[in-house]
Amino acid sequence: TKFAAALAVVALALTGCASGGAATSASTPAASASSQSWPRTITHTKGETTINAKPTRIVSTSPTLTGTLLAIGAPVVASAATTPSDITDDKGFFGQWSKAAAEKGVEVLYPDLEFNEEAVLAADPDLIVVSATGADATADQYDKLSAIAPTIVLNYGSASWQNLAGELAKATGQEDAAAATVASFDARVAEVKGKLSISDPSANVVVWNGAAKDTAFAKPGSPHADLIDSLGFTVAGAADAVDTSTTKRNDFAFVSLENTVTALTGATVFVASGDEATATDLKNTAVLRNAPAVANNKVIALGQHSFRIDYYSALEIVALVEGALA
């Protein structure tokens, strides 16, 4: 099938790209072999951190950021793991990068996202990478972590994986590898974009949680919107006035079913964090039957790994869009 063929491309890309690599070349980290000077000072969401030498033992307390570290060839020795589920391996590493982690010998830092300071200490890191937001955030442990090793805190909710790759490359000395990874991905995006015939580029990216729960709409400028836009679409979000979130996010707005009816305006709807069954459930919801994408059968599942975008899941998303629309 077209989907099988597209996913086969993902497998080839993951094994064929030297360092592992979504959006446009404007986000490509600059290759800088001449910048391999240490110490260097990294500015991040918690301030500034000086790293005295190129890291050789990196610990990630954020599984979401671990995928990007692996994609740029950074020496990750251990990563926090989430609770095992159908989107992870049996260790709790996300399925899109778990194979790469196994090949690199990455150990579980601690399971179930249960922060464990002693485990971090035992891993003997020379750099600790932390998320500022999300279920895997440990930014509130910054002082404790900084006492163990240099620590940087990044916000993956407001940046594309390519931009995160650039920031991580500065901290790890992997500028050249990061640039090569992003360039290879940009080439893949350009290839797929050239195959798509898009009569109406308007689109929504949603996480469909069923009719009984709020729908999450990706915001313009969010990582999901940037990726889909790079393929030739124009992603629209939901109005701020209908966002039910108690704490506003940079990436998604949460919308009641009543307001989803009016916000689902795209000619194509991409369903993140969902498979064909999820997309079918959205299409079969009676109050959404007149939405343009539902009426024209342009509801595209982006796969179970597509909620957290890193190089590996971004490649899967691009392949699924190619399989559905090329």
Description:
The protein is of the alpha/beta class. Helices cover 37% and strands 16% of the residues. Strands 8, 9, 10, 11, 12 and 13 form a six-stranded mixed β-sheet that branches. Strand 4, helix 3 and strand 5 form a beta-alpha-beta unit. The N terminus is likely disordered.
Write the layout of secondary structure elements.
Elements: H1 2-16, E1 40-44, E2 47-51, E3 58-60, H2 63-71, E4 76-79, H3 98-104, E5 107-108, H4 117-122, E6 127-131, H5 142-148, E7 151-154, H6 161-172, H7 175-195, E8 202-207, E9 215-218, H8 223-230, E10 234-235, E11 252-255, H9 257-263, E12 268-271, H10 276-283, H11 292-295, E13 299-301, H12 311-325
Parallel strand pairs: 3-4, 3-6, 4-5, 6-7, 8-10, 8-12, 12-13
Antiparallel strand pairs: 1-2, 8-9, 9-11
